[in-house]
Fold this sequence. Notes:
heterodimer, A: 763 residues, alpha+beta, Aldehyde Oxidoreductase, domain 4, seven-stranded mixed beta sheet, six-stranded mixed beta sheet, 32 strands, disordered N terminus, B: 287 residues, Uridine Diphospho-n-acetylenolpyruvylglucosamine Reductase, domain 3, Enolase-like, domain 1, 13 strands, binds flavin-adenine dinucleotide, oxidoreductase activity (chain A), AldOxase/xan_DH_Mopterin-bd_sf (chain A), Xanthine_dehydrogenase_dsu (chain A), Xanthine dehydrogenase D subunit (chain A)
Amino acid sequence: MTTTTQQPLITNVTGGVGDSPMRPDGAQKTRGEFAYSSDLWADDMLWGATLRSPHPYARVKGLDITEALKLPGVHAVLTHEDVPDNIYGLEHPDQPVLAVDIVRYQGEPVAIVAADHPETARRAADRIVVDYEVLTPVTDAEAAMRPDAPVLHPAHEGGNIVRHAPIRFGEENPVADVVVTGEYTVGMQDQAFLGPESGLAVPAEDGGVDLYIATQWLHADQRQLTKALAMPEDKVRLHLAGVGGAFGAREDLSMQVHACLLALHTRKPVKIVYGREESFFGHVHRHPALMRYEHGATRDGDLVYVKAEIILDGGAYASTTAAVTGNAATLGAGPYRVPNVRIDGYGVYTNNPPCGAMRGFGAVQACFAYESQMDKLAAALDMDPVDLRIRNAAERGTVMPTGQVIDSPAPVAELLELVRAKPLPAIPTGPRDLRELPGGVSNTTHGEGVVRGVGYGVGIKNVGFSEGFDDYSTARVRLEVIAGEPVVSVHTAAAEVGQGLVTLKAQIARTELGVQRVQIQPSNTFVGSAGSSSASRQSYVTGGAVRAACEEVRAGVLELAAARGFAATGLAGGKVVSATNEVLADLVDVLGDEVVERTVEWRHRPTAPLDPVTGQGFAHVQYAFAAHRAVVDVDVELGLVRVVELACAQDVGRAMNPDAVLGQIQGGSAQGLGLAVMEEIQVVDGVVRNPSFTDYLIPTVLDMPPMTIDVLERADPHAPYGLRGVGEPPTLSSTPAIAAAIRAATGLALSRVPVRPEHIVGA
Amino acid sequence: MDFLRPSTLDEALAMKAEFPDAVPIAGGTDVMVELNFDVRRPPALLDLGLVTELSGWTRENGHVRLGATVPYTRIVTELGDVLPGLAMAARTVGSPQIRNRGTVGGNLGSASPAGDAHPPLVAVGADIEVASTRGSRTVPAREFFTAPKKSALEPDELIVAIQVPEAAGPQQFAKVGTRNAMVIAVCSFAVTLDVAGKGVGTGIGSAGPTPLRALEAERFAAAELPWGSGEPLQENIVRAFGELVGAAARPIDDVRGTAAYRRHALSVLARRTLGWAWRSVPQEVAK
Ligand SMILES: Cc1cc2nc3c(=O)[nH]c(=O)nc-3n(C[C@H](O)[C@H](O)[C@H](O)COP(=O)(O)OP(=O)(O)OC[C@H]3O[C@@H](n4cnc5c(N)ncnc54)[C@H](O)[C@@H]3O)c2cc1C
């Protein structure tokens, strides 16, 4: 091909980085047509059911499956004896696939059943006789840390302390003019995703198994499955099924091993779907926290020191408790310049439900405490709480309590200024729509007892996996001509959990390769690990991997072009172009029958472990910030709250998909609102009292107010496109902002979230 | 599980007599939840959806005869004028989807202490019409509930209709929940005024083993309200009424709230709802 038509470039590619193209699953989901993992189906499949411990702590003295096996329709009843390697865990392998001689939390799986009907499977599970010797559960995390507490995991060194994360920064005994102390508690929040744990395991002819599963990280599941099943990696293949929300609750395994065991045992496809109640026992929750803080400042309002003890109840198994503890400790002083910091974070084993990952991951709990302290300090100094925050706000160059220097934009003060500058919603006069009042349509007030309050919060969250973790993603990108058109295909193992990554991967490919048509391949383990869809990291890490793979593909195409005599330097609008953006040839012509495919494993810059004694180290790859102002109306006589407005400002580095950014900020803020005023798994003596959406309440459209949102784009020079993880920061700061607003309306100290009506009326 | 589908009331009663274990299903908003949560595994469901005798309402002799399977949405849109208390309570039930399906017959059938239709029915002194192949009878709403989730309904009986006196004055209903919509009552309260008869009715929900009446509060208010004067309510009367209502409750501590909070909140609701009701007493009548 030698003829070059010299034409100016018309970039007709739309839906690239910075646009907000429609997400491919959006219309399906709104119409109820999207296939979730609970919709999976195979001819001839069996249904699995799980027998769980009713006790938070008990010895298992006997297990009799005889009667279960007798039930017609039952194909298998399996116990720990049938598990090749019974111990698994995301970070620490400490959890049995099926309980052996002890159960450590209510809901722990003891046996599994496969039957030809879900009801038969459940009835069979009911027929299993377990002889329990009930033990007194350890349910107080602080008491569990004492040397005399019963040790729940004898194999673990350090008694019931999963991790102690100390931070020692600056002077040991600093002196301050003004000191405020406080003790704060955070209840156990649930991720409350709508699609319960579910998947389908299909035994394969090669003796392996294919698992179709809703998860956050296919390869972490695969790693744990190959161990538990004692099978090589190529025999355990995972395929991402439709994920109905995650928020951290799908990081740990739930029914994955169980379904595979039953499928391999029966040689039939086995589907397991948890019901809503079972789901509350099927995943980890947010760690409840007890936090003691002391802040010291000069009379002028400069922070002198922060001291804190943060105790996180990890429940029965470690899950990600160690990493959550690390986050709470390293971020425990907040987005502030603090010269002296002494923090002790503890993650603890108890017999409460296991806790692990949830959006915000340790930073949420700490943020409630340090922001409550900032308000208290402002009051003690007789200062405006926003002024105090701005005066001490972290910025680029600030040294964190870990010794790490913030080396990218940190516009904390600006975010606070932005939310403060928003006009306040007017206080309505005259007759009001019930839906605008605390209590809503329940008709509890027509204005009586209603007092308005305003509060602020700002938070800091790490993006990506920290503390030296080898955090990477893999992308395979392929460019070829299909039906006369250039088409890009992107293949990663990254889990689309609703965040919009599928859309984003296509946007990146369009931008990098100048090609309109992009096919996103299903996520599975036929390509390398993408890492977890958590820690606000996938746009950064899988986005980075897709971009890097696109760059290699582009280089490959340019080589092809060179071989054909075009001195091309780029791809745009389906053409190869020169350095001056002149169109040299059609991509279709340059490619011909060639397929250019590259697979890239991409890493962000490395982080380092914390020093175990001082907590010093370059632990986090990126920091992200959001600030909220909350306006609430509180019915001070009934203790009912209506959040009137949330204003949020967040720096996202680069808004890769502006609509998706807004969606993340809205959703994250709503989850923070839930923690502030209603969401709590109530656990008494290790027993969950409200495992249902009847009594575990999440915000409705009448609870979540309209938001005003400011999105800043201050590029992080270290990150692809300068982007900053978006998903978690808004979950941090909305909770303390709302709590502060309720305090402002009521004058109460309110040191616990969720704030319940009883706390407000004192009954 | 069998699914029985009678198309007339007689057929339904015959089936219920033959299969007393068959669980009637109207909107299914309680039944399906119980099935899903495996709370019960009935041998049969008796679908009332085709029985037209249950699905309408009529006005007769100062009463509305409300068919057992009229959904809340229709009560809100069609009966707000004549049965304002019940319509207000219906408005607070669940979500639009639940109000489209859920019925007062089902609320009574479940007999949950937290059923939102119960306080207005108790306050206004409604009668529940029940029937079996043995015949029909009416049970006063105030006697219908016997224990949590237990009622005077016999195993072979169906709820046919609820006879609700038309409002003889302002009515109010308010419910406290820890969310601004779609929430089960932590406690609830209904009040009715009979302006001509100088009577006050009350109903307390979710603060005792059954819906309750605050009898002393009713007597007190009937005696102390400045009937016919057109005067605003005295603060001390409102307060005393609230306290009597709080005292009439028999709440417990549970996952939704404490007993102390419920008593307190009921007093507040009683004060406010009495005030609103009084303020909307028609001026011509009051003077
Ligand atoms: C999401 C959700 C929210 C809810 N919110 C509320 C709320 O805010 N307030 C509230 O009070 N309730 C609420 N409920 C509960 C439920 O909607 C109500 O109790 C409703 O009134 C039940 O009516 P139904 O027609 O759906 O009853 P069904 O479920 O059909 O039946 C309920 C019971 O009554 C029996 N029954 C039904 N009809 C008859 C009859 N004619 N004769 C004899 N027995 C009969 C049934 O056998 C069953 O035991 C909620 C439920 C859900 C799922």
